[in-house]
Amino acid sequence: MSTVLLLLITGIGLGALYFLVASGLSLIYGLMGVLNFAHGSFLTLAGFLGWEVGRRIGDGTWAGLLTGMLVGLVVGAVVAALTELIFIRPLYNRHIEQVLVTVGLGLASVALFEGIWGTDPIQIRLPEWLGGTTDVLGANIPNDRWLLIATAVVVLVLIVLFLQRTSYGLVIRAGVENRTMVTALGIDVRRAFTIVFAIGGAAAGLGGVLASVYYGQVGAHQGTSLLIYAFIVTVIGGLGSLTGAAIASVLVAVIQQFANFYLGGTGDLAIVLALAAVLLVRPTGLMGKVKH
Predict the structure, then answer these.
(1) Which CDD domains does this UniProt record tie to the protein (predicted)?
(2) Are 199 and 176 in contact (CB under 8 A)?
């Protein structure tokens, strides 16, 4: 029983990390139809800069970590907004060019990060509490999972409040449902596009710092590897559905954890099979809708 509980809670913690990356992807595609393959670069850059600033504030302290998280959030938002303004905006409705540009940015950024910080992952120091465990019904849960879960819940609540309670949120939700109709009503959705990119980048940037907490290191390829899982989560949850992304993040991570433990490390195969099953049964994903 304790093993099952350990796998379940650690899976939810990993799912929280997937959600931070996938939420932005889902919103960006839902409103703009843009598959942003440079999304992992926002995560990696934020992770590196968050670590650089955090260790100067206080290496291995809460002050350093929280400062790093704030830096990651800001860096992710700014870089994502600039990417939309400079590279994506001139290419709306040109999907092939969008894919080529974002893939190129992703590849070039990895080479840039390797040139600056090296090819080997950098081990990081964390506050002492995060390196410990908490006993839950006999299961020793790593404390860093609680930080991941709490942060993802806060981000989910803030994004939902933004979408439900603000005028830009209304435009974004309407654009996800029917972008053509919103444009026909004379509403300029371009500023909403930039805001969505910034929100997605901020969540990914925060995820970049927390990924270094989860893995205990930060490296040039961290964002690329997490981006693969984020795309799987986004497709399973339903493109454009924030709720779907949240549910799919937990499902994917929990399946991955159980398969790795009970089925000889086949977690990645299990989630690919889950992706295939969902697409066969429900091509739009768990919470996705057919776009008009």
Answers:
(1) TM_PBP1_LivH_like
(2) no
25 contacts 157 by C-beta, under 8 angstroms? no
* DSSP structural state of residue 282: -
**Integer Cα distance of 249 and 23 in angstroms:** 9
Q: In the structure encoding, which two tokens stand for residue 236, read together?
A: 């399973």
Q: What span, in angstroms and rounded, lies between the C-alpha atoms of 182 and 196? A: 16
Tell me which residue has tokens 């830096």. 71
Distance CA 67, CA 19 (A): 21
Domains and CATH numbers, the chain: 2-281 (1.10.3470)
What does the DSSP assignment read for 250-276? HHHHHHHHHHHHHTTS-HHHHHHHHHH
Residue 291 confidence (pLDDT) above 70: no
Rounded distance between C-alpha atoms, residue 236 and residue 286, angstroms: 6
CB 64 within 8 A of CB 31: no
């942060």: which residue's tokens?
A: 151
Residue 160: predicted pLDDT:
87
Q: Is the pLDDT of residue 170 over 90?
A: no
Say if CB 38 and CB 105 are below 8 A apart.
yes
| Average predicted confidence (pLDDT) for the chain | 88
Q: At what angle do helices 222-237 and 242-262 cross, to 10 degrees?
A: 110
Q: Is 133 helix (H, G, I), strand (E, B) or coil?
A: strand
